[in-house]
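Suppose you are handed a protein chain with no further information: no name, no annotation, nothing but its sequence. What can you learn? This example shows the usual starting point.
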Amino acid sequence: MNFKLNNGSCCMGRKGCSKVQNNKLNTYDWLCDVPDAENATDYVEVQFKNTRKGYYVNSAKIPLEKGDVVAVEATPGHDIGSVTLTGKLVLLQMKKNNTRTDVEIKRIYRKAKPNDLEKYEEAKAKEHETMIRSRQIAADLGLNMKIGDVEYQGDGNKAIFYYIADERVDFRQLIKVLADAFRVRIEMKQIGARQEAGRIGGIGPCGRELCCSSWMTSFVSVATGAARYQDISMNPQKLAGQCAKLKCCINYEVDAYVEAQKRLPSREIVLETKDNTYYHFKTDIFKREITYSTDKSFASNLVMIPAKRAFDVINMNKRGMKPISLEADEKPQPPKRDSHDILGQDSLTRFDNSASKKKKKKKKRLPVNGNNPENRNNAPQKQKENRQKPINNEKSQPNAK
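A reasonable first move is to predict its three-dimensional structure. Written in structure tokens, the prediction is:
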């Protein structure tokens, strides 16, 4: 066997061992390099449009690899799908999906021929038009249901109608009308709102592709209690996804919140002090800080204390003691910090300060009269002129007599 790496993937000469994930139902064959794992069974996993998969037996011993398009047995006629898994791992997947091996399993006929692919493309091209027309027929019959998707069989002899309904629907008359309209065998399958959102696809508020359309295959019920544990706002518009149900991602972190909550005092415990009685208001689980209020209904005289202090007060109350205040008697003083501003060099006004200093240097204040240098230069000449002028003081003049 030739070992060959393809961009870091384990190819080892077989498509079935490739790590390339082209859809959410892709299965990585981690047994591809195990000796004799490929020929361990004749069962093959085949995937069809959307999220439909099936397991078939390769009784004709056709050499198949992952990605091969094959024609498989159907009721009636045949269907077209692509091989997604071969070898020993198929048995484990069948066990995981509760597929029984004691009943008769359908066969793989052959690799798809050009004629088979041509019929398959013709049938696939009619799916959207059939869905629109079937919705109109259901509305004319007054049925409270929504047909979300239509899937034709590979040979075009059968069509699967996926519908959504909040209550039980009697669609026997609908099947007769659809069979007369499209001349095919009709099969109805009910799906949930989350499955429909996964088929349509979209972008979530997180900016990523919807989980239901990218990787989720099984859906677990989501309760509002999970949102309460995480202190998420109980706003229906924020909690609901594009399927109008609670977001699946609410369940992702709830286990971490539950484990963290176990290390905090119960929300039902009331704290007693000499002055007031305090009730739980809110909890910051990861900071381990609890806020208490003196009123049970609304926020009043809120006090935030660490979880350690809350446990201390609870133990004091159990011994019949009441602290003076809910906060610690001796508050730890914050460490002294250097008054030097380490960000002073990055002040936003540093350019303005330097510019104003330059302007002040350029501007010279003119001195007052006596200190003016021009007045100093002209002072002797002015004194000379003053000496030459006659003095008009009457007291200094002699009598004319």
